[in-house]
Amino acid sequence: xxxxxxxxxxxxxxxxxxxxxxxxxxxxxxxxxxxxxxxxxxxxxxxxxxxxxxxxxxxxxxxxxxxxxxxxxxxxxxxxxxxxxxxxxxxxxxxxxxxxxxxxxxxxxxxxxxxxxxxxxxxxxxxxxxxxxxxxxxxxxxxxxxxxxxxxxxxxxxxxxxxxxxxxxxxxxxxxxxxxxxxxxxxxxxxxxxxxxxxxxxxxxxxxxxxxxxxxxxxxxxxxxxxxxxxxxxxxxxxxxxxxxxxxxxxxxxxxxxxxxxxxxxxxxxxxxxxxxxxxxxxxxxxxxxxxxxxxxxxxxxxxxxxxxxxx
Length: 312
Known about the structure:
GO terms for molecular function: DNA binding; DNA-binding transcription factor activity. By secondary structure, this protein is an alpha/beta fold.
């Protein structure tokens, strides 16, 4: 007889992978650490193969474990979609969502697809734009929900008219470029910068850090779009500055110390609701956006279990 996986067990497994600890996963799923440990043992018994292998002083996923994780994510997502669809089948209305370009490809398609399948009667309008534009549209009543950088340069009169703001994460800003870049801090040559045209909080913070470090710089390329920055950085024209979100494969995060570049500060990422009393569709979409951002915050790490000294 074929065994059936328990969704609750798979959820604990996926949560442990996302959070980097089964102890933290226990908090998320509302179980004790010993209960989650028992779930993982049950999962190994059901698969009939070891999920983990020793790696140094820690553990890593086996090939079977990697395969199981992929299916576990899909099964948990389908389970949640089915629940949302049956519970929210009568949910109606519309939601106007705004996102930074950094999340346009990594978050938007999955979130909108999942939401539309669960709530087919809700109409969604999505806009990908720069920070100042998103704040202005929130203030003008043109957006219900927006994922924005907590921009200190946004005029106070805009910020004070907003509904509620929730800090989702505080990722560190990073220098972004490629190994093609030909620049040496010791040479005294100005650092070639690739920046957004017009006002940009990240650009201002980066140039201020360079000025404090006494490093000369020059702007070699500007673009109104993030795609333009990635193209120029990928071609080795210079360095740009963003967070780790949404990085294409053509660029990488540079080791600041190794390249003689100053460290950069963290940047709060906020989910802003335009109203203090959001509608049910807005609340539902906000929950999906939060989950997607938190998942992308922890994804992309190579074998987090390899850095785990103990399973729990």
